[in-house]
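Give me structure tokens for this 241-residue protein.
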Amino acid sequence: MKCLLALIADSLILLLLVLMPASNIQAQEDIIVATGLPVESDLFKAAEEVLIIISDRMKREFKLISIPGKRASILLKNNEIHAEFTRVSEYAKKVPSAIKVAEPIIELSHYAYSSQKDFEVDGWGSLKPYRTVAMRGAWIIEIFMAEQNVSLMDSMDSAFKFLLSGRADIYVANSIQADMFLATENYAEHGVKRLEPAIFTSREYTFFAKDYSELAQRYERALKAMKADGSYNKILAKIGM
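Here you go.
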């Protein structure tokens, strides 16, 4: 009799596992989000804080990883990561299958930095006469400077050193990352300065891989709730934004 009861119990467990919704089975899987931000940067830590709160509200674990932008694009296309944390809206042209979260994650202004030149910036066209260096994987550069000769670097440190070597006239980057880097690495002491005004101001969005539309919707609701209750702005305030 005991053997029969044990067999029935085992059968019921197997049946429950078969009938369990796929979303519940996958609940233990971390949501992998990629960014090009260096792990040691304040911006990376701020992004982690945002994802911790979103994680709590979605009841799903998030893991933020730092990888080059080009690699992240390939992984997103192949559904090997769940999302990319920040990309400009035009990124949809590069990965048409990706799902853009409609609520922006941040607004960024892009500037030209130089140690040799001093001119008034007037949009992307005003940069054409100058040799430019930028970060590899910066999709906004691929969009707006596609016809220009741009040297691409793997790190911000390499980009600023390239600029100071005289092999480039300007370095194009978003001001949040570049200004923080200048402040901590003392490149400003070598005469590097930000040219005014901003070249371009863009809203940046989180993009999910094509198979995760439901996650994208829940993520957007959580992000909107953070902005509404002030927890999002508190995180940005910690890094002076």
